[in-house]
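dumping this here so i dont lose it again. seq + smiles for pyridoxal-5'-phosphate
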Amino acid sequence: MTHANTPRAQKSPRSDAADNIPRVTAFPATGTGWDELERGLKSFKGLDYDWRGGRLPSYTYFYSDELLKVQMDAYRLYSVENGLGEGRAFPSLTRMLEDINAMVLDLFHAPAGAGMTFTSGGTESLFEAVRTARNYFQANRPASANGGRERLNVIAPVSAHAGLNKAGEIMDIDIIRVPVGPEYRADAKRMLELVNDRTIMLFSSAPCYPYGVFDPIGELGAAAAERNLWLHVDACWGGFISPFAEELGYAIPPWDLGVTGVTSLSADIHKFGYGAKGASALVFRDSEMKKFERFEFSGWPRGTYATPSFMGSKPAGSVAAAWAVMRFLGREGYLATTKAAMDATCQLIHGINAIPGLRCLEPNREANLYGYVSQDSEVDIIAVANELQGKGWLPGQLREPLAIQQGVNPVHLPVVPQYLEDVAAAVKTVRKSGERGVFNPRTY
Ligand SMILES: Cc1ncc(COP(=O)(O)O)c(C=O)c1O
């Protein structure tokens, strides 16, 4: 039986909860009291997957109510202020950013003279890294033989985050994706063969989202230093996990600014930094590079408008929350959050490998990301994913190879036994029914 992803299978199992909230069909003539609005908002949550119950493969990052309260209270204190204006109106934000810079640069072994930009998330960090590299390239490289009209390019492994292509699309830059080598890591040799005089950046991940493995950053860094190329390390997922996982004894390959040749690095505070959404760090080995990122425009009647990165008005709440959670947790706290996420990852990998017919992709345990395939022709892995979805889990799907893929965070730890039980039951059901699924590309 072929079982496509039916609308029912796509729906969250809790979707009936908000059915009695009246729909708004036009702009309201009068206001509504907060009590009613709050009730509405709380009911809306019934439409969603139970993130606190560990039902999601990513999207939310939660450790404890105590930590969440710090994040939310800090955000609330600064929900009205604005990050626009480079501290003219709100020098308090500049102060907080200086503290955040110091914490982040230290964590990622940045050398003296490094600098950082606070961005709204991984996508903006990637965009800004490429934009800065492009501006730097244009300012420093003589136009090539054809007058510099040929498009610029970034060379990346195929596993690079999709957001890189958004940057390429916006700026008309070619993103050349190269097949990964053994162990799903970037094929450095092949990437370097493709470098030409229009290459503005080599791109790598630490780790990449699809496979949870680290690219050979040492090798890429050495080549980048030798050939004077810009190397970006995308640590948006792992930036606030890897330093602590390494301290806990996990074998984490070299990846940060301690590696020669790394020019810039992105790390999301709103993921495993446990900041509020809208927070990422873009770090430059040399703060002079920030000159190539800064935008300034004076050709309008209002004078000079300047921003350090892409956004204009900017949520101050995410800056305040980032400042607060990093200080609240400290190294000690992040060791605890990372231990919970990595313990859950190891238990899941161990448990899934024990289910007949399933196998986790290798290498694994370099990060809190894992994927598993079916090794049994009678068990279609996408049908297993559909079964799990019917039980209220939202599985991530991987296309190459066909697999269930997910990120792990501390909320998953208490539900590992339940998840494994449901996976084992789903495998049995699929084996019995012969059900086959259709890969759903929209599971990010
Ligand atoms: C490695 C990596 N880079 C970039 C991003 C994009 O981050 P965001 O969704 O915050 O824009 C992600 C998101 O999961 C990621 O895992």
